[in-house]
Specification:
single chain, alpha/beta, Conserved hypothetical protein from pyrococcus furiosus pfu- 392566-001, ParB domain, four-stranded mixed sheet, 10 helices
Length: 311
């Protein structure tokens, strides 16, 4: 090499690490997997051990839901265990079985897997299901059928509010209005006006504005409520949308008939709830109706006013 030649910088060496499957590389393991024939064996809970390496968490609410499912459908999915009785998959079902007071559960022992395979399966059993999706059209049909036959639809794992939201976009099936729901037009103009108080024996009915303190003072006459049941407007369109698929006509509410934004409807409910709280005793029970799509606004308003909420 002459003095004018520039030395070449050596290229860095690159090490490639390939992640091969243990089953594919080991013919013994591959044969064990291929010949595995699962056998379901009923085993005492005392023989099962939760794994300290289980990364999946289970809330008390979810465990109760699993327990309800087991009561409704039976223990249809066995708990997977290794040769020592340590749980590979099914920790939630194991906790649900304890909650139900069961002494035994169906199990499948995975004697054919290595410890490394078991650690991988413990993750895969939970993670792979998360990559699945839903066909919403079919889901709406199935949930709609269960709702129609009055099945305990919460056993599906969906909450009532979630089901309401899913089904709210579904087109209603053509149907005729029930003649019993059709009311004749009043012969005279209604005489009740804002501020009118009706006395019916021991009962008092006020035509008033639920946002106004004086309305509660007039109605309660110095008393405070122990229990309140309220069915406020849901901020949805009324005329042509409610009653017999639009065949029965109802006048829109004075407010919250679909014209409010989410923030405005929340503020509206908060104002009403605040007046209800002022007119109620400490510890009173307040029951409020709402549809699923507007549950969040109701909860937000309720949390701002009341001490505790139950949905």
């Amino acid at each position: 090499m002459s003095s004018n030649d520039t030395p070449k910088t050596p290229k860095p060496s690159v090490r490639l690490r390939q992640r091969g499957g243990a089953v594919a590389e080991d013919p013994v393991l591959r044969q064990a997997v291929a010949s595995f024939a699962p056998q379901i064996v009923e085993r005492p809970l005392s023989q099962l051990k939760p794994s300290a390496r289980n990364a999946r968490t289970h809330s008390q609410k979810q465990i109760h839901l699993v327990a309800d499912s087991i009561k409704a459908f039976g223990f249809v999915t066995p708990v997977l265990i290794d040769g020592e009785g340590e749980i590979v998959a099914g920790h939630g079902r194991y906790e649900a079985a304890k909650l139900l007071g069961r002494e035994t559960v169906p199990t499948i022992r995975l004697d054919h897997l290595s410890q490394d395979q078991i650690r991988a399966l413990r993750i895969a059993d939970n993670r792979l299901a998360e990559h699945a999706g839903w066909d919403e059209a079919i889901l709406k049909l199935e949930l709609g059928h269960l709702v129609e036959i009055d099945f305990a639809v919460e056993l599906t794992g969906y909450e009532t509010a979630q089901i309401d939201i899913l089904l709210s976009d579904a087109e209603p099936a053509p149907a005729k209005a029930d003649p019993a729901d059709v009311l004749p037009e009043p012969e005279e103009v209604a005489v009740t006006r804002l501020g009118d108080l009706w006395l019916l024996g021991e009962h008092r009915i006020l035509c008033g504005d639920a946002r106004k303190r004086e309305a509660y003072e007039t109605l309660m006459d110095g008393e405070r409520a122990q229990m309140v049941f309220t069915d406020p407007p849901y901020n949805v369109k009324i005329d042509g949308h409610v009653g017999g698929l639009g065949k029965i006509k109802h006048r829109p509410f004075a407010m919250a008939s679909g014209e409010m934004s989410k923030a405005e409807f929340t503020a509206f409910l908060k104002e009403v709830f605040g007046e209800i709280a002022e007119a109620s005793q400490d510890g009173a029970l307040i029951f409020s109706c709402i549809d699923g799509p507007h549950l969040h606004e109701t909860l937000d308003a309720g949390f701002a006013v009341f001490d505790a909420l139950r949905a």
